[in-house]
Amino acid sequence: MFDRRIFILLLCTLVAASLQILPSHALTGAAQKVKALAPSGLVYVIDADGNELIAQNADKPFVPASVAKVVTAWLAMETLGADYRFKTQFYLDANRVLYVRGGGDPFLVSEELELLAPQLVAAIGKEPITGIVLDSSYYPPGITIPGIEDTNEAYDALNSALAVNFNTINAVRKGSTVYSAEKQTPITPLAVSEFRRRGPQGRSRISLTQEPEVSLKYAGELLAAFIEKAGGKVEGEISVGPVPEGMTPVYVHNQSRSLAAIINQLLIGSNNYIANQIFLEIGGQRYGGPVSLEKSLQVANEMLAAQGLQDAIHMEEGSGISRGNRFTARGLAKVLDLFVPYAELMHGHDGGTNKTGTMSGIRTLAGYADTANHGRVRFVIALKGGTGRLRYQLLRAIESGL
């Protein structure tokens, strides 16, 4: 006799079994496709519960390049907070000498100076300033970032307590004539002389790496230009020195961008200068100024150790420019899991939620990918060689195969 109940029970059992088998087949297919595309590449994928979905060469340490900025972003958001604001302090003595104490603001750009200058002029009045003294003591002399070289390249810009426009000059040179390449940035005498001395013909951006005092004086010149634009007047020299003891600020400028907004720009633009300014601030805030790379590495190592990542994430600096940085895929995937509350700060070149890293012979990609069967996964891809396109082919294989 046909037992309908037994038939339904068997049918349900078969359906349940097939549902269990399908993801397994999907996993196998995705892993096979990844292996076919990049047999020697490192590819690691986990789901939101930490289950490994693909683990190809996952235990080999790799040079992360700019995906190291994801770790810096996580450290900063946890240490400083999403609404943290970098500060620049201004003092005025009885002789109307203006003292400026830098606080390591990584986004003290021309647009920020335009916001700052009217508020500063309102605080000090429009009578002539008899000089500007720039205090960069929050960053002591001799700070060196592994991987930063003494070049004109913008990505090698010197980190500083007080620098403008990412410690670079963006200009156009035609013969001996130099003019600003940005409508928002006035050209200054020092910018002209530096570009004549070191800038190539045409439009380019040079870093101010060779002489820290030159970098500071350029910041002073640009500040003076914006003060005058706001109705103030600057007379006398621009010099470098400390704020005298006992002085009280007449104006403290809080960066208009929150830390979250700065990190969003960092993860989009991958600016090494911004990354290490943020990284240095982590140590400065935790252990007090002046900043040092050692203080920031101590904070980083303490926080990583608290997550069991002391052997998985080795950092020498915060931008990824050093080849001495070494990560494991499992370690970086764990950081990606910790970074989930801030994941939307990421905007990859392909429109996804990811971050690339590119150095000579190194191509990396890490972030989050949405899949049909496993939801939003965390992935790490690291390749050797010169092709960046393969990273995205592997990502598409992960998205479509899981």
How does the SSE layout of this entry go?
Blueprint: H1 4-37, E1 42-46, E2 52-56, H2 68-79, E3 87-92, E4 97-101, H3 110-124, E5 131-135, E6 168-174, E7 177-180, H4 189-198, E8 202-207, H5 212-229, E9 238-240, E10 251-254, H6 259-269, H7 272-287, H8 293-306, E11 313-314, E12 326-327, H9 329-338, E13 353-359, E14 362-371, E15 375-384, H10 389-401
Parallel strand pairs: 4-5, 5-9
Antiparallel strand pairs: 1-2, 1-15, 3-4, 3-10, 6-7, 6-8, 11-12, 13-14, 14-15
Helix pairs in contact: 1-10, 2-6, 2-7, 3-5, 7-8
N/C terminus separation = 43 Å
CATH architecture descriptor name of the largest domain: 3-Layer(aba) Sandwich
Could you name the CATH topology of the largest domain? Beta-lactamase
Number of helices: 10
Instruction: Name the strands of the widest sheet in spatial order.
Output: 2-1-15-14-13
- At the first level of CATH, the class of the largest domain is Alpha Beta
User: Unreliable stretches, pLDDT < 50, 5 or more residues?
Assistant: 14-23
Structural class: alpha+beta
The dominant shape is elongated
Query: How many strand elements?
Result: 15
Give the quaternary arrangement of the chains.
Answer: single chain
Total domain units: 2
Estimated radius of gyration = 26 Å
Largest pleated sheet: 5 strands, antiparallel
Strand content: 15-25%
Helix content: 25-40%
Element string (H = helix, E = strand): HEEHEEHEEEHEHEEHHHEEHEEEH
Provide mean pLDDT, rounded.
92
Fourth CATH level, the homologous superfamily of the largest domain = DD-peptidase/beta-lactamase superfamily
